[in-house]
Design goal:
55% of the residues lie in helices and 8% in strands. It is of the alpha/beta class. The chain has three domains: 192 residues, Rossmann fold (3-Layer(aba) Sandwich), CATH 3.40.50.300; 77 residues, no CATH class; 80 residues. The termini are far apart.
């Protein structure tokens, strides 16, 4: 039996993801990826164009867990002192090699490093040991650092061989896309509130102690229900030319367990395997290929929700088109036949699913489809 304390912790974990995404339009997936990284104690890199809320998400994540936060934008000319603190001149005169680390990366629990692949060789080597061992090797000193998760950002996947080791240190890789056109109006409203300072300030919903407890709880999640499917997916990825290192194959289990915890479960389900799209790919093309494989292989809630979202978008576009065309446009016949077929598909999803969220979503989409069909019939005056 799950204790009340664990139930409360898991409820707050779900609230953390919800609150993280709250001020941002269309960034629910990014919020979940950051939460997965933080719960599992791993690192995440967000790849995409500027202006897609990457740094704002990172800062809000730190605020929601009351973590010590450090943020920096790297250039090719960034010096180690800017990140790790300057040398203490007084100590140096006494023959001691000491850095002043106050408010610098060595004191942070959550760090956001923008344009991380601008790191020069000196910074690169220090990053590798900090991320992997949580130790800063600095001259004659080994400094244990409290870094829990590094959140990094870049416009592109690095091509340089010397940067591949750093890139591989990030268990989670997420390719951030601009907001889709159907959300632009909502984006404008949200942006105006942020500019005016009207959005809700982040109040902590978890603490770093809670995060440590969640991290230990990972190993109590029952992964047996998904292991057979996971091994099958690994084999399919290899057959399709998507190579996963042995280290990443093992670490994926932490991410799967973290996904279960976010959904307030101590048992993994097939739908948790969708997080492989953030672990397996090396670039955006592999991400799309990986996700296509997952959609084909996993019969889960997200698969249905994605399909229903696509149908709803098509219905919305169709309504806008139908409203503008003449009553005798022959393409309306094709629209009618197509949406009558789609209606049956959505009706089957609503009847066959055991998931209440999917069922309600399907019923909502059915209503949209019915509106489209009614619009077409009125054009025909049927």
């Amino acid at each position: 039996m799950v204790s009340q304390a664990i139930n409360s912790l898991l409820a707050n974990t779900s609230k953390f993801v919800e609150e993280l995404a709250k001020p941002f339009v269309g960034r629910e997936e990014e919020a979940r990826v950051l939460a997965l990284a933080i719960i599992s104690g791993e690192h995440v890199v967000l790849i995409g164009e500027p202006g897609t809320a990457k740094s704002a998400l990172a800062r809000r994540a730190a605020e929601l867990i009351n973590a010590r936060f450090f943020k920096y934008l790297l250039t090719k000319f960034t010096e180690p002192d800017e990140l790790f603190g300057p040398l203490d001149i007084t100590a140096l005169k006494q023959g001691k090699y000491v850095r002043i680390t106050k408010n610098k990366l060595p004191e942070a629990e959550i760090a956001f490093i923008d344009e991380i692949f601008n790191a020069n060789s000196a910074i690169l080597n220090m990053f590798l040991t900090i991320m992997n061992e949580r130790i800063l090797y600095d001259g004659y000193n080994e400094i244990k650092v409290p870094l829990w998760t590094m959140i990094a950002a870049s416009n592109n996947v690095p091509d340089e061989p010397e940067l591949q080791a750093l890139y591989d240190r990030f268990l989670f890789k997420h390719f951030v896309k601009p907001i889709s056109e159907d959300k632009w109006a909502e984006l404008l409203d949200a942006s105006w509130k942020i500019e005016a300072g009207l959005y809700e300030k982040a109040e902590p919903v978890l603490s770093m102690d809670d995060i440590r407890r969640l991290n230990k709880l990972l190993y109590e999640v029952n992964l047996e229900p998904i292991k057979e499917k996971l091994l099958k997916l690994y084999a399919i990825f290899e057959d399709q030319g998507i190579h996963i290192t042995d280290r990443r194959k093992g670490k994926a289990l932490k991410a799967i367990a973290a996904s279960a915890l976010i959904d307030q479960r101590l048992v993994a389900k097939e739908e948790d395997l969708f997080i492989l799209k953030h672990i397996t790919p090396k670039d955006a093309d592999e991400m799309e290929q990986t996700y296509a494989i997952l959609l084909d292989e996993i019969k889960a809630t997200e698969k249905h929700l994605r399909e229903l979202a696509e149908i709803e978008r098509n219905a919305s576009e169709a309504k806008a088109y139908i409203a503008k065309v003449s009553d005798f446009d022959p393409r309306l016949v094709d629209y009618l036949r197509s949406f009558e077929t789609v209606r049956e598909r959505v009706r089957r999803i609503a009847e066959e699913t055991s998931d209440d969220v999917v069922r309600q979503r399907a019923l909502d989409v059915l209503s949209e489809i019915s509106e489209v069909i009614d619009m077409i019939k009125r054009k025909f005056m049927i």
